[in-house]
């Protein structure tokens, strides 16, 4: 199916990415993944990271991940969290009860932010697959490096390296998806998506705030998402 392509760019949503992405990887093709939330599912995650094709994860609508990735790879982060706020009506989901949906429809600017979710990225992507791909991207960036021993055992890592199995990217991401904390807020009349990222540990304290304009073609998606895909694709093509 993918044999005649030099590179595959996914822009089809989490379900399609989880279904077809592993096949592109198995065919040995580089895959640029936009719907990063597909990595939250254990089966899709295993397939997307199995090779022989290489997975390229886009940053989507957030930045600063290079700094956090560097800190995480040095075991320098103990906590990572992201608070995302979006226009209230854009967070209404078919699975919501009518009272829940009506509460979002009736939210006014004077009501302030309404928290609609708190948890980890894997839980968030199940409930809001179109809104929190960035939380999974954050977990991916802060997964750390492959090693034979967990970060907490860094003192004994050298001694155990020959006996302990190497942790794969899938293992690291699975742990990171449990560690990252996500808060999703609805704000009536908010025209831009806002993301506040905070992380701390021995590497220091980090805080980022990003506000992005929605795509003119799809108001549910940040305009930065397309720019991130283009940047990732340029990097892949120049490797």
Q: Output mean pLDDT.
A: 87
Shape: globular
Query: What is the helix fraction of residues, given as a range?
Result: 25-40%
Q: Look up the CATH topology.
A: Dihydrodipicolinate Reductase, domain 2
According to DSSP, the number of beta strands is 8
- What CATH first level would be assigned? Alpha Beta
Distance between the termini: 24 Å
**CATH architectural designation:** 2-Layer Sandwich
Low-confidence stretches: none
Question: Secondary-structure element sequence?
Answer: EHEHEHEHEHHHHEEEH
β-sheet strand percentage: 15-25%
Number of helices: 9
Gyration radius from CA atoms, angstroms: 19 Å
Which class do the helix and strand fractions yield? alpha/beta
Strand order of the largest sheet: 5-6-4-7-8
Task: Please explain how this structure is put together.
- The protein has 239 residues and is α/β, with parallel strands linked by helices.
- The protein has one domain: Dihydrodipicolinate Reductase, domain 2.
- The protein has helices spanning 14-26, 42-48, 65-73, 98-105, 121-127, 133-141, 157-160, 169-179, 223-237, and strands at 8-10, 31-33, 55-57, 79-87, 114-119, 181-187, 193-201, 204-212.
- The strands form 2 sheets. The protein has a 5-stranded mixed beta sheet. A 3-stranded parallel beta sheet has the order 1-2-3, sandwiched between helices.
- The longest helix has 15 residues, at 223-237.
- The two termini are 24 Å apart.
- Residues 112-146, 171-229 form the Aspartate dehydrogenase domain.
